[in-house]
Amino acid sequence: MFLEIRDVEKYYGSGTSHTKVLDKVSVSFAEGERCVILGPSGSGKSTLLNVIGGLDQIESGTITIENLEISNLKPKELSLYRRDYLGFIFQFYNLIPNLTVKENIQVLEFLTDSPLDIQELLDTLGLAEHQNKFPSQLSGGQQQRCAIARALIKNPKLLLCDEPTGALDYSTSIEMLMLLENINEKYGTTMLIVTHNTAIKDMVHKVIKIKDGRIIEDYRNDILTPAGNLEW
User: What spatial distance separates the first Cα and last Cα of the chain, rounded to whole Å?
Assistant: First the structure.
């Protein structure tokens, strides 16, 4: 298995505010698949994404990606793990305002020895004509495209998406999901998508539902609905 999570526990706070956010979570993900993590606010889904991304430390359990066990890595080793393995897409785009679209992407292009072709990526994401614009000159959908391109330029093995359509309207959300679908099929990038939007579950290979820090459902779809056909 590409990514293995075993008996992971995560707590926040201390004393009377001590809260278990992940409770003995065990789940695995295959390489090259699109996967969704569903759950209500406070269920632990974003925390699960954060511990996979090495942004939060776990109290117990193991997280292994391609035989690399990350839960005990030192800060410098975690930085190398994030550089070499991961791309991040967030609900809020976190673009650098005084850099152009192309320059925002190049910030991460320079961190890897084997980046994707930036012009091909700009073309694939429909950004070629906007590459010299600044974030303030872009629509929300165009800014999200830029954030996706920035995450992908490193050619990551794993793309972590935290509410990637949360700030977008319906038509732009469908457009973004079609792009993620296309990227997965074109580059074989493994994707974990955290979302409140239950419709997205029909376009992915694997579905995880989490509640109160525990996985309550874990199943695979035999038939996938194309992103362009989703309705909610």
Answer: 32
Q: Which helix H or strand E contains 34, and what residues bound it?
A: strand 34-38
For tokens 């004509």, the residue is 129
- Structural tokens at position 79: 């930085």
pTM: 0.89
3 state SS of 30: coil
Amino acid at 199: A
Q: What is the DSSP string of 161-228?
A: EESTTTTS-HHHHHHHHHHHHHHHHHH--EEEEEES-GGGGGGSSEEEEEETTEEEEEEE-SSPPPGG
Angle value at C-alpha 116, between 111 and 117, nearest 5 degrees? 115
Kind plus residue range of the DSSP H or E element containing 23? strand 19-29
Distance between CA 43 and CA 112 in Å, rounded? 34
Three-class secondary structure assignment of 44-99: CHHHHHHHHCCCCCCCEEEEEECCEECCCCCHHHHHHHHHHHEEEECCCCCCCCCC
pLDDT tens-digit profile, the chain (232 residues): 899 999 999 998 776 677 899 999 999 999 999 999 999 888 999 999 999 999 999 999 999 999 899 988 999 999 999 988 999 988 777 899 999 999 999 988 888 888 889 998 898 888 999 999 999 999 988 998 899 899 889 889 999 998 888 777 888 888 889 988 988 998 899 999 999 889 999 999 999 999 999 999 999 999 999 999 988 8
Q: What is the distance between the alpha carbons of residues 51 and 64, in angstroms, rounded to a whole number?
A: 11
